[in-house]
Design a protein that fits this description.
The protein has 696 residues and is mostly beta strands. It has a six-stranded antiparallel barrel with strand order 1-9-12-11-10-14. The protein has a six-stranded antiparallel beta barrel with strand order 3-4-7-6-5-8. A four-stranded antiparallel β-sheet has the order 37-38-39-40, with no helix packed on it.
Length: 696
């Protein structure tokens, strides 16, 4: 039966993305600490869209997953990974890259042999939903390098990786797709090898239905290195034909007679005779068990020890097995109902109750109603005389006389007026020279002498002598002095604090007895204070100082900051050694020269050149080279209405220039593309279909 020739060609990619690529797929999403889920995921603006991300790829986020994590699921705008986030974030950037052994070919341009009908439309990735199991797969052939030196190709060493999933097909000969090292039956990457890191050129080859062998073809047909055409076939042929040796190997779908040894699960063997099996019986206990027969008993097998749980309704065997339960369990004291248990039958354990004091209820044992009688209580505590009384459905209580002791709110307490003087050890006591009887009211106390230095309490009437204390109990006497100063306010505790009046810069204070004097200090070069003004130069009115005439300084050198808030006219040279702050407009009618070592910072977003112009003219930026008359100029040509360049330009030669080159302008499907001003040689126009036009 004839078969079709396997297709082949050359692919040149605009970019190849591998494991660890930082610019493959960028996303933003929301992260939660301790969660493996990223939500509200959207594209982050990289060349490959998030919609082309796959399960198994690597996700890195600097705070949440700094060491990377593997994607386990993608549903809409939600990603699930195989580890938990270490940080939280909202609309936080992250990046996705292929796993080791997977690559993304971006905008792979297809070259095919002359007159070949092969196109990308003939190719379906093995993981695409439209892939048919009966279809051939396609692989890309690529050069290898060692993992220790990925930039240097190993001459003559190639690998083939299967096309697994298409991203997009721009047209029949331009597409983006994934390739994977999981090629069936082929070692795509031998040990310690990887694809050359700078490689963007591949051979594409259709594989045989075994998904292994690629065609042999002439590399000249697609203008590619011969190694691309020969090495993959050699790799596959070696592994496939090796299995066809007469000594051993793997064969599938065979029929007829075979000799030698066979390996496999035997699922395809329909009949194996006993003569083909070297053993036709086995020994179990002392019985020989014939293969293919049924044994009703097994002799010579000792006790079987089982662990775990054995579930069965009945046990069949001799009574000797009951000993396996252990000794029999029998009835103990009289509180347990009579029973016995030897493992031969079920037994029930019950508790004996008298039915008088205790009852058996649904929920368990309970005290029977009226089950506790005076019989159960000691006679010493069972009557009112001995303080505990009640029963017969009433609460137990404590007997009180109601005169001396009473019960209030469940608490025992002495009743008001219930403690007579007879209950006290004494009915009076002496204070001073007076005998004070308990229960009486004393209006005076005679013969009382206070010997302590401190008396407390409230006193009224007239007092003489000396009084000591902090006066806290005295009323109507101020103890705090409040004050308010020009800066701040406060208070002074007259009992514990003194008021301090301190001097300041330019102010002196002095005190004597009850007088405090505040005076001003004369000003000096090192101290602020009171200063006088020359009446020839200055006038002082109501504290305001003004110049009698304009201030004229023939020669001025200002070494500190100068603040000019009004107009300033400088007739001669002025040198400012510190910062100069101008709060209004600065007009320079001569030449302004900036000679600072650092770059010039301009806070404004736009710079207006030729601001004094009232008509169209040239203007631009000149960068000095060998001297003021030798500059590189980037400027606007008013005649051509275009930006241009020129060299060796002298800015002092005039107000025009002649460009030697022009800047290319690009119009992206807008109205400017049709203007005469835009239609200049070299300008570019891109229409809505992506077609590019260059004006000539």
């Amino acid at each position: 039966m004839a078969s079709n020739r396997l297709n082949y060609g050359k692919v040149i990619a605009s970019a190849v993305y591998a494991n660890g690529s930082n610019s493959f797929i960028r996303i933003t999403g929301d992260y939660v600490i301790g969660s493996p889920t990223i939500t509200n995921v959207v594209d982050g603006g990289q060349p490959v869209n998030f919609s082309e991300a796959l399960i198994g790829q690597q996700l890195v986020q600097g705070a949440a997953f700094p060491s990377g994590t593997t994607i386990t699921n993608i549903v809409g705008t939600t990603i699930t990974v195989n580890s938990n986030s270490a940080a939280a974030g909202t609309l936080t950037s992250g990046r996705i890259s292929p796993p080791v052994g997977q690559y993304y070919i971006s905008s792979g341009s297809l070259t095919i042999p002359s007159n070949s009908a092969f196109r990308y439309t003939d190719v379906t990735g093995s993981d695409d939903a439209s892939f048919a199991a009966s279809s051939n797969t396609y692989a890309l052939v690529l050069p290898l390098a060692t993992t220790s030196s990925p930039t240097s190709q190993i001459v003559g060493d190639f690998a083939q990786l299967k096309i697994t999933k298409f991203g997009s097909r721009t047209n029949n000969v331009d597409a983006s797709f994934y390739i994977s090292a999981s090629v069936d039956g082929i070692n795509a990457f031998p040990a310690s090898t990887t694809m050359v890191s700078s490689n963007t050129t591949f051979a594409i080859a259709e594989q045989s239905f075994s998904q292994s062998i690629s065609p042999i073809y002439s590399s000249a047909d697609i203008a590619i290195s011969p190694g691309y055409a020969l090495s993959p076939y050699g790799i596959a042929a070696d592994s496939v034909f090796e299995s066809f040796s007469t000594g051993s190997g793997v064969a599938t779908g065979g029929s007829g007679s075979f000799s030698g040894s066979f390996q496999g699960d035997g699922s395809k063997l329909t009949r194996v005779t006993a003569s083909k099996i070297p053993f036709d019986s086995l020994m179990l206990g002392t019985d020989s068990i014939e293969l293919g027969t049924t044994a009703s008993n097994i002799t010579g097998v000792g006790d079987i020890t089982a662990t775990g749980t054995i579930t069965a309704p009945n046990f069949v065997g001799t009574s000797s097995y009951a000993t396996k339960v252990g000794s029999s369990i029998t009835q103990g004291d009289g509180s347990i109902a009579t029973f016995s248990y030897d493992g031969s039958a079920d037994a029930t354990v019950a508790v004996n109750i008298n039915g008088t004091t205790l009852n058996k209820a649904v929920t368990g044992l309970e005290v029977r109603a009226s089950g506790i009688t005076p019989v159960q209580l000691s006679s010493s505590v069972s009557d009112a005389t001995n303080a505990i009384f009640g029963g017969g459905g009433t609460a137990l209580g404590v007997q009180v006389d109601g005169t001396t002791i009473e019960i209030v709110g469940g608490n025992l307490q002495v009743k008001t007026g219930g403690l007579p003087t007879s209950s006290l050890a004494t009915s009076s006591f002496t204070l001073g020279t007076d005998v004070i009887k308990l229960g009486d009211t004393a209006t005076t106390i005679n013969g009382l002498t206070l010997t302590a230095t401190t008396a407390s309490g409230q006193f009224s009437g007239s007092f003489s002598g000396s009084f000591y204390g902090d006066g806290a109990g005295l009323t109507g006497i101020a103890s705090t002095l409040m004050y308010t100063a020009s800066l701040g306010s406060g208070s002074v505790n007259l009992k514990t604090q003194a008021l301090n009046i301190l001097a300041g810069e330019g102010i002196d204070t002095s005190g004597s007895n009850n007088t405090v004097t505040i005076s001003g200090e004369d000003a000096s070069t090192t101290n602020k204070g009171i200063a006088s003004f020359d009446s020839n130069d200055f006038s002082v009115t109501a504290g305001a100082v003004s110049f009698n005439n304009f201030l004229t300084i023939p020669t001025a050198s200002i070494s500190n900051d100068l603040l000019v808030s009004e107009d300033l006219t400088v007739g001669n040279d002025a040198s400012v050694g510190r910062d100069l702050l101008v709060t209004r407009n600065l007009t320079v009618q001569g030449t302004a020269s900036f000679q600072h070592q650092d770059n010039l910072d301009v806070a404004d977003r736009f710079i207006r050149l030729a601001s004094g112009s009232t008509a169209n003219g040239d203007g631009g930026i000149a960068v000095q080279q060998t001297g003021p008359a030798d500059t590189e100029l980037y400027a606007w040509d008013a005649v051509q209405a275009r930006w241009g360049f020129t060299s060796s330009f002298n800015p002092g030669s005039g107000a025009t220039f002649t460009p030697t080159q022009y800047v290319t302008a690009i119009a992206d499907n807008n109205s400017l593309s049709g203007s005469v001003r835009f239609q200049k040689a070299g300008n570019m126009y891109v229409d809505t279909a992506g077609e590019i036009y260059i004006y000539s």
